[in-house]
From TrEMBL:
Organism: Paenibacillus tundrae
Gene3D superfamilies for this protein: 1.10.1740.10, Winged helix-like DNA-binding domain superfamily/Winged helix DNA-binding domain
Domain of life per record: Bacteria
Every RNA polymerase sigma-70 region domain range: 21-84
UniProt keyword terms in alphabetical order: Sigma factor, Transcription, Transcription regulation
Name of the protein this chain belongs to: RNA polymerase sigma-70 factor (ECF subfamily)
NCBIfam families given in the database record: sigma70-ECF
One of the Pfam families matching this protein, by short name: Sigma70_r4_2
Family annotation (InterPro entries): RNA_pol_sigma-70-like, RNA_pol_sigma-70_dom, RNA_pol_sigma70_r2, RNA_pol_sigma70_r4_t2, RNA_pol_sigma_r2, RNA_pol_sigma_r3/r4-like, WH-like_DNA-bd_sf
UniProt record similarity statement: Belongs to the sigma-70 factor family. ECF subfamily.
Domain called RNA polymerase sigma factor 70 region 4 type: residue spans: 132-182
Length: 193
C-alpha cells in the first residue's frame, strides 16, 4: 500500500491502520524486542505504538519515510515505557530473559525465515549461522546493537538513523563500523573454538 497520502492526513480509518499494522507490525515488534529483550513487553509496546499512530497521524509530515517515522515512535514509546513505574517494578522482581535457540524455532521468531540480507556482505553469511550472528549482536551494548539493527534489519541509511537517534551521521558511521568489527571478532573467536 502506498502511504504518501498520510503526509497530509488528519485522521486515518481502521482499514488504513490495519494495512499499516500488516505491513509494519513485525518491524515494530522486533524493534521493541531488540530494545527490551522481552516478548511480553514487545507485545504491549507494539500495541501502544499503533494506538499512538492512530491518534497522532496528523504529526506525520512525510519528511521521512513512514517506516522511519514508525520506528521513531517505537523507540520513543519503548524508552518512555522503560522509564514507567510498571516497567521498573516488573524488573525489580524478575530478570528479563533473552530468547534461547529453541525458542527461536518454537516461539515468536525474532528473525523471520524470510530474512532479506541488505548487502552483499550480509549475504555471505549462511542461513545456518544467522541466529548465532544475531545472538552476538544482541549481546553488544545498546548503542552498537541498535545501530546494527536499524542498518542491517531495517535497511535504514546512516542519515535516517542519525535523525532518528538524534546523533550525527559521523557517530552513526563510527558505531556501525565498530559494531561490525565487534561482531566479526566475536564470530571469529566462536569459529576458532
Amino acid at each position: 500500500m502506498d502511504y504518501q497520502f498520510l503526509a497530509h492526513a488528519q485522521t486515518i480509518d481502521n482499514d488504513t491502520l490495519s494495512h499499516m499494522m500488516d505491513d509494519y507490525g513485525n518491524d515494530v515488534w522486533n524493534y521493541v524486542y531488540f530494545l527490551t529483550k522481552s516478548t511480553e513487553l514487545a507485545d504491549e509496546v507494539s500495541q501502544e505504538v499503533f494506538i499512538r499512530v492512530y491518534s497522532g497521524i496528523a504529526h506525520f509530515r512525510g519528511e521521512s519515510s513512514l517506516k522511519t517515522w514508525l520506528l521513531t515512535i517505537t523507540r520513543n514509546t519503548t524508552f518512555t515505557y522503560r522509564k514507567s513505574r510498571f516497567f521498573r517494578s516488573s524488573l525489580w522482581g524478575e530478570t528479563l530473559s533473552i530468547q534461547t535457540e529453541q525458542e527461536y524455532s518454537t516461539g515468536r521468531e525474532m528473525i523471520p525465515d524470510t530474512y532479506a540480507h541488505p548487502s552483499a556482505e550480509a549475504e555471505v553469511l549462511s542461513k545456518e549461522h544467522v541466529h548465532e550472528i544475531w545472538d552476538i549482536v544482541m549481546a553488544l551494548s545498546d548503542k552498537f546493537r541498535e545501530i546494527l539493527l536499524l542498518h542491517l534489519k531495517y535497511e535504514l541509511h546512516t542519515n535516517e538513523i542519525a535523525e532518528m537517534l538524534r546523533i550525527s551521521t559521523g557517530t552513526v558511521k563510527s558505531r556501525l563500523s565498530r559494531g561490525k568489527a565487534k561482531v566479526q571478532k566475536q564470530w571469529e573467536e566462536r569459529s576458532e573454538s
